[in-house]
Amino acid sequence: MNDASDSASDPPPTAAPDAAAPEDVALAADLAAGAGELLLKLRAELGFEDPRALKAAGDEEANAHLLGRLAAERADDAVLSEEGRGESGRVGTARLSAERVWIIDPLDGTREYAEAGRDDWAVHVGLWQRGLGLTAAAVALPAQGVTLRTDQRYPVPGPRPERPRIAVSRTRPPAAAHAAAEALDAELVPWGSAGAKAMAVVAGKVDAYVHAGGQYEWDSAAPIAVALASGWHASRIDGAPLRYNNPDPYLPDLVVCRPDLAELLLAAIAEAA
User: Fold this and answer.
1) With bands split at pLDDT 50, 70 and 90, how would you rate the model's confidence at 90?
2) How far is C-alpha 236 from the geometric centre of its chain's CA atoms?
3) pTM above 0.90, yes or no
4) In angstroms, rounded to a whole number, what is the distance separating the alpha carbons of residues 162 and 236?
5) Contact 269, 180 (CB under 8 A)
6) Distances (CA, A) of 177 to 136, 151, 211, 240
7) Of 36, 174, 200, 272, which has the highest C-beta tally within 10 A?
């Protein structure tokens, strides 16, 4: 039987674009978009008077939707979900010996989801395969009406700007981002959820996303897969690859950026460390 140590020695964090089965990418996109539609409906029904109740309902219902679909359509696969960490069987430690693991975040950005008018929240659905890494993924931005996926290309736009824009947390911009901004004369841009920030890079709305305040695998797996599939840079803040399906899913920092900015950005972060 394969053990958990295999995840740490995977080749790259994502497989070559043609390694993914088209039906897996299609399912990831359908799952993410479907959960997004459910979340939009729930938002309209419950309103914003009780943010705590809206957040709880969104997390619960979107997670149930995704787990139900995966149980029906990929019954032999394991699942790692932010909202299903304590469950047994398909969700939990069984994933460490599984060949295929869906890494999902049913509602990325509960704070933004529960604020009227905000569209910077997401649904993440990614597939990790042993020996290949992340092979298929989709990130839905339901309030923006878009779903980005690993079988579509999002090319880097134009030359690198003289003053890059770096997406950061609205509430806890990391010291690494401040240091990089000072070194590169960059502008820090507060943005919503992790997935929304990573997809803002891929969509060319900002040039980089820097995070160093603590995250888990479900926060980044699907967005990282989408970014890497189109040739964007993604790594830990020390330049190391992002690895998934580890025994401890804590994955606290990352950089997503234009490939022509990566060397400068990582050097600025390292110098300030």
Assistant:
1) very low
2) 14
3) yes
4) 24
5) yes
6) 29, 30, 7, 17
7) 36
